[in-house]
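Quarterly update from the structural biology core.
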Amino acid sequence: MPRQIPKQRAKYIKRAKWAFYAPGFLLNLIFGWYPLVLGLIVGFQTYYLIRPSEFVGLANFKDVFHDPLTPIVLRNTLYYTALQIGLVFFVPIIISILLMEMKKSTIRIMMILWFIPIAEMAGILIWKWFYNVNYGLFNGILVSLGLPTSQWLNSARIAMLCLVLPGLIMFGPGLIYIATLQNIPEELYEAAELEGTSFWQKIWHITLPRLRPIIAMMLLLSIIGNMQVFTQPYVMTGGGPGSATYSVIMQVYTLSFANLQFGKGGALALILFFLIMVLVVIQRKYFKENIDV
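Predicted structure, tokenized:
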């Protein structure tokens, strides 16, 4: 028979649980749900900081849809997300799988490199210097090799690609994939080798199915995070050249805090929110987390 907990003690345990839950719950309400609800309300108002706001219905959304910048920033944000997922997201998965076939010392070195804490802003500023047209590292290397220099961030054709490339070096979640791979039982690989399974067949039938839940979770977080990109284009290009790297969140920031048009900024943020939700639903529908084998 399980030991019964006295009612008085059970009451104290319940209170202690709520004491631990309360700070996180309150912070989530203040910094999570409150801004979300406020943004929803503001999107339907002409919002003022120091005097009562006015309800304007869908007027803010109409203004945002008629703004010539709106399709540009939506296209740029989707393009950035597609580049991030296509070029950056899958590389750490491939590297992690290949690393598991190497010596343990090599795995440790790579994990240390991934684990080194690099401040995001510092990394962005360093890469901005690398791309500098006049005295940047990349053009310096091209000059030393006798090759023509590039405009990098000053070129509307490749500026977005230049924003994405630093993610190949600074993508830390590779650690998560390695940790997951290390938990796959060796017996599965040994049994597969006895059956004459090739290296690629082991990856396809053993490794990838067991990485699937982690890949699905990281893909979801990648979609949500990249659709809200702000820091990289704001610091490295300011949205330029022209509007080639101007993102939705940059436009929300400009409308809300530069132009003080909080209603329009809120409306655009809501449009982005629903677009992200559509992408998340598609991802959840067509990329299941369950292990099939």
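The mean pLDDT is 85.
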